[in-house]
Amino acid sequence: MEDRSAKYRAFYAQLICAAAKTTNPRIEQAFRTVRREPFAGPGPWSISVGGHPYVVTPDDDPAFLYQNTLLALEPARGLNIGMPGAHAYWLSGCGVKEGETVIQIGAGSGYYTAILAELTGPSGRVHAYEIDERLAALARENLKDIPHVELEDRSGIASDLPAADVIYVCAGAAQPATQWLDALRPGGRLVFPLAPEGMLGGMLMITRPEEGAVWPAKFLSRAQFIGCAGLQDADAGRRLSEAFAKGWESVQSLRRGGAADETCWFAGEGWWLSTAAALVPTVPIKPHADLTQA
């Protein structure tokens, strides 16, 4: 069965990179290396494409796991291992390097934590946070043999987060947590879904500059996630829906503090997104409009 799994993973990694429109060999190698079986749990499995209903696989053949689909962890809650092609695209956008320190918010059963660990390599570090006790227990078991991963069963919105080069958030929020911004090292990238629960928002990448209150920012794609506890706001969700309806590709920077001007795309409490460029350009990755659910 292991030989079959290796064959499936080789095909799957190529399929995922094609969906993500990336030729990054490190992304392909990470998806080729990490087995999905432990993170999916025992089959049969419930899988879905985008917003379509779940379909239950006829048996536990691992071939069903190696597709570009959502894989349910808790179908009743709509809680999934996210769309691999979408995550490959976002990971390509934030450019995780060997030796970097990564914080992951919303580890689930640990699949994308393991992918991040492959990208950082053993000289790096992955700090993963999962607030759901059951999922955290699964993730801890699944990740126990990766020494440079630390899993904590608590909220990732905290003042004691380690300094990080990349913060990768797998839960929708109405705003970037101040703690995430403060934990970023200069040059560090925060990638998170600006998408309150139940809303189609966008995966926003923010880069911390060496100094100043104007941070390069851009949406990588549209995105929808289960909500991040503590970062929900119904009014912000309504206003964000209106902002996205008017377009989202023009966002170029995040401003911390100060009065919003005519370039404001959306304003939150103490921050706002602007269509004006920051002094430091964003990573040249084209927005991908058809990546949505994760």
TrEMBL record:
Pfam families: PCMT (PF01135). Gene3D superfamilies: Vaccinia Virus protein VP39 (3.40.50.150). GO terms for biological process: methylation. Its EC number is 2.1.1.77. Its main location: cytoplasm. SUPFAM superfamilies: S-adenosyl-L-methionine-dependent methyltransferases (SSF53335). It is an enzyme of class 2 (transferase). Keywords: Cytoplasm, Methyltransferase, S-adenosyl-L-methionine, Transferase. GO terms for molecular function: protein-L-isoaspartate (D-aspartate) O-methyltransferase activity. It is found in: Cytoplasm. Belongs to the methyltransferase superfamily. L-isoaspartyl/D-aspartyl protein methyltransferase family. This is Protein-L-isoaspartate O-methyltransferase. It comes from Bradyrhizobium japonicum.
